[in-house]
């Protein structure tokens, strides 16, 4: 069974600094996707970044980038130039198609989250 | 705005009661997922529908049921409510098929059982 582990329950970073959130996962699949979601105090779940396992290049979205190490099954999120608005809970998620069923079925597994606080 | 809508935003009810939570997916999305998030906890996957059919079940209690209608909106029914059912319930949608695999989340329904 697939698992997603976020080993840092809480982290803090000074404004304008860089922080890295870790995520490891366990799977025997070769075709899968990885995501980082952000949940600010409003509790809305917001997609931050996605990575396809077949792509070697690390995904980047503005100040957010990932370090995807497929062999090590590691998917960390780096936030550069941290801003107060980055204060949130961050969830790592693993997704794979369920091949035995008709298309449209995907299995998603979320980590337990890392609470990030950006300090002024 | 993700394009996924959920109603109501807040719901307060008593133990033993039954409630229905409603979700409208993004336009064109065929898959709907339901999650439960208790206070300061992670997301617990409950159930998934694709184009009207149930496709996957997670840790969904027998007191809970769901369905997806022909217009693709979905409803989550919670019955014989207990104090422990108090949580934020999210609906998410994705396009399904061979593309559009990220989930887009609604704002959630906060359920309080007194």
Describe what this molecule looks like in 3D.
Chain A is mainly β. Chain A is built from no helices and twelve strands. In chain A, strands 2, 5, 6, 10, 11 and 12 form a six-stranded mixed beta sheet that branches. A four-stranded antiparallel beta sheet of chain A has the order 3-9-8-7, with no helix packed on it. Chain B has no helices and eleven strands. In chain B, strands 2, 4, 5, 6, 9, 10 and 11 form a seven-stranded mixed beta sheet that branches. Chain B has a four-stranded antiparallel beta sheet with strand order 1-3-8-7, with no helix packed on it. In chain B, β7 and β8 (74-78) form a beta hairpin. Chain B is globular and about 40 Å long. The N and C termini of chain B lie far apart (31 Å). Classes of the chains: A mainly beta (120), B mainly beta (114). At the A-B interface, β5, β6, β10 and β11 of A face β4, β5, β9 and β10 of B.
Q: Features of this protein?
A:
heterodimer; A: 120 residues; mainly beta; 6-stranded mixed beta sheet; 4-stranded antiparallel beta sheet; B: 114 residues; 7-stranded mixed beta sheet
Question: Summary?
Answer:
The complex is a heterodimer of chains A (120) and B (114). With 120 residues, chain A is mainly β.
Secondary structure layout plus pairing:
The complex is a heterodimer of chains A (120) and B (114).
Chain A lengths: L2 E3 L4 E5 L4 E3 L2 E3 L6 E7 L6 E7 L7 E2 L2 E6 L4 E6 L8 E10 L8 E5 L3 E6 L1
Chain B lengths: L4 E3 L2 E4 L5 E6 L6 E7 L6 E7 L2 E5 L6 E5 L5 E5 L8 E8 L9 E2 L3 E5 L1
Parallel strand pairs in B: 2-11
Antiparallel strand pairs in B: 1-3, 3-8, 4-5, 4-9, 5-6, 7-8, 9-10, 9-11
